[in-house]
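Researcher: Going back to the complex we discussed earlier. I've cleaned up the inputs and rechecked each line, so this should be the final set. Can you rerun the prediction on the complete assembly and write out the structure?
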Amino acid sequence: MVWQRLVSTLRHGPASRPAEPLDEAATRALAERLEAAAQRRLGRSLAIRQVDGGSCNGCELEIHMLNSIVYDLERFGLRFVPSPRHADVLLVTGPVTRNMHEAVLRTFDATPDPKWVVAVGDCAIDGGVFKGSYAISGAVGTVLPVDLVVRGCPPTPGQLLNGLRALLEANAG
Amino acid sequence: MSLSAGIIRAAPTEPCQPWPRHVLPGEAWRAMAASLGEAGAPTLLALWADTGRVHALLQDPDGAWLVASTTVEDGHYPALSPQRPSAAWFERMIRDLWGHDAEGGRDGRPWLEHGRWPVTAPLSTRPPTRQSPGEPAEFLPVTGEDYHQIALGPVYAGIIEPGHFRLSALGETVVRLEIRLGWLHKGTLGLMHGKSPRAAARFAARLSGDSTVAHSLAFAHAAEAATDTQVPPRAAALRAVMAELERVANHLGDCGAIADDVALSSLSARFCWHREAMLRAASVAFDHRLMMDAVVPGGIAADIAPGGAEAILRALVALGDELPELVRAGDNFSSFADRMVGTGVVTPALVCAFAAGGFVGRASGRSFDVRRTPGYAPYDRLTYEVPMLAAGDVDARVRVRLAELGESISIVRALLADLPEGSVAVPLPQVTGEGIGWSEGFRGDIWHWLRLDGGQISAVFMRDPSWLQWPLLEAAVAGNTVADFSLCNKSFNCSYSGVDL
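Model: Rerun complete. Updated structure for the full complex:
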């Protein structure tokens, strides 16, 4: 049973896709931002905590795919952690709802410095279609200091991966 | 015909498509509410409101569909929850959004309202400005010695939506789980008011991202019913292709997540690989991996792209070829079965009492599927099975989903082999009307209701299947170990955003 699976895997080779070339400009901009903030570098390994600030779950579905064998996030030194206390990066989705506002702030406070905030998806960037609702605090940037945005509704795993790798490169200096 | 149905049918009607809406005087509604406790009473599928009335959708045991309303008097209406516990969450939601109090309701605690909005009763005619911050949430008491409580969320576990789970445990055993939601309330219904169905469809598509096709479809059906619009056959067929593809992708993702939860990584990897293949095929065919905004009122946003059908078929054939091996792999690992079998059991009686749909219902012997009844095109011309089991545990829910994969594959193959020619959308007339629409999402039956005033939405409600499934998770987890909470939760995979509105 197990050996059959092993043989089949060896025969077919890895299912992971090769990484695409990075957006040099984005990486440079992030590196400059890092210098400006005089933030201590975290090296070539970043721990990510995902926080849903009010999304429709579309962004989470695609973030999940980063963990699949197709994108295999960990080969880049990036991994998801269950607690903000273990995280270097907060990956925040959704327009931040008023009901989640305090929880998002507390999660940020629970994340040790130095830390990065990545706003994922169109809602996180400007509120998206939910702009102007009584139930929305606003974009992630109105609640937390955002270092990087990944656009899309939702962004594809490829777009997410490129954003996170740019962060990693900038961070490694 | 049940007593409740008799009371509802005796009331005068207002136009609503496809079923007239009966407006019950206060006393008649009270009598109907009381009769819901009798044997053979109708099942309650949804309870919602507008600024002046409360509405209920029911199905009589003889199969008839009943829509009932009552006028809210002095801010009150007789509650349904004393006889029908599944109404309790709806009643709390109605109070929080419209300010109508369910008189005699079983649970008066706030639900979506966390004391954070600038106004209270935001969907009422003149929402009052908030005067005081909300009270901290109250949880049901647990009395006795040696109990401890575990508070999970709203930020908890991994990549997941926010919710709060209060586990009261005696040692390793969960005695009670209480769920508190509402963290994702985005005011979606309010944002849809005053918009055309075409503009408001973007909100239906974002009620619950994983069911974007299914919710868009139910919304489109409601708008088409309200405006008496017939969708071209090609659009109906391609909508079903998308809906089945969405079902397959979600079942694969969730089966992968469950395999991962019980540490069977090799199986999880294969499920996720196939999920990715489905999303890519969807992207080729419909220009979006999740097919968001692809279904619109009147048809679909764009015809299937050249090469799209081939891409979908390639992905489905690859899955179909490997599926028996994936099912066998699960069977061959006793440690896998050990975690799944007998875990998180929901009894058939409870599933029927709550009218839980989808794989939650079908794993406990309730075969309800709105593709069959009341039905919609193109499923009337297709042959397919609705898999059903009776055990009601995590294992049964997974097996029902695995069986549904096979059915969906054959549905899509049949549809693509015989796609009708012609246009893929028609414009909706700008009229006044009211309609109910439904679709079978991967979680189960979805119901949308809307009222159009000169082509613009004046009232709307969207009922995700999770409304009637979340409460059963509370029952399923009781008596299991704390460590199995995550597995039970994954086996339901209810929507947070879908019920938070």
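Model: Worth noting: Residues 43-172 of chain A form a domain with the Rossmann fold fold (CATH 3.40.50.12280).
Researcher: Good, that matches what I expected from the previous run.
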